[in-house]
Specification:
By secondary structure, the protein is mostly helical. It has a domain of about 80 residues. It has 8 helices and no strands. The longest helix has 23 residues.
């Protein structure tokens, strides 16, 4: 009887562990940015491209450089301690060590510039990021955690199909 109970306990641990892995392995990891950045406040004043300056010229949108931030934050435009952190980084001659939230697998060929030229706006892929007060999750190289927590490849493929864009593998995969 003890052997059977031990077997059931072992089985329960294995099944429970597998269930946990399936349920949580694909969840976006929450990160803490060095500055609590309110996209909602910024996008009410400037476009995404004001801060993500590389989006129209390179395949990647890029992370904001301190010089870009200081274009507005040179003056004390806000009494926020977070805005003060921007000036502190600048005073030290340092870039803000932003943590990248979106990263595609190495075999994916994606260009923000190309997608913008096709008429897509940032919200098409990034959802309501412009309404957020602190954006701290993205999607990773394992192809999960696409917008709204969906499978990234499925999300992109559905968009391509809906717009009549290329759906053959080599259109996006190297």
């Amino acid at each position: 009887m003890r052997e059977f109970a031990a077997f059931l306990l072992g089985l329960l641990i294995i099944v429970g562990g597998a269930g946990y892995a399936v349920a949580y392995a694909n969840k976006a990891e929450e990160v803490v940015q060095p500055i609590r950045f309110p996209h909602a406040k910024h996008t009410s004043l400037v476009s995404c491209q004001t801060c993500h300056t590389q989006v129209n010229d390179t395949p990647h949108a890029g992370l904001p450089k301190i010089a870009t931030c200081m274009g507005c934050h040179q003056a004390d435009v806000s009494k926020s301690p977070e805005a003060a952190k921007v000036r502190q980084y600048s005073d030290r001659g340092e870039e803000v060590p932003w943590i990248r939230l979106y990263e595609l697998a190495d075999d994916i060929s994606f260009s923000h510039r190309f997608h913008l030229k096709q008429g897509l706006d940032c919200q098409a892929c990034h959802g309501a990021i412009g309404e957020s007060t602190q954006w701290n999750t993205g999607f990773g190289k394992n192809g999960t955690n696409g917008p709204s927590g969906r499978d990234l490849m499925g999300f992109c493929l559905a968009c391509h199909q809906g717009r009549g864009a290329a759906t053959d593998c080599v259109a996006c995969h190297k």
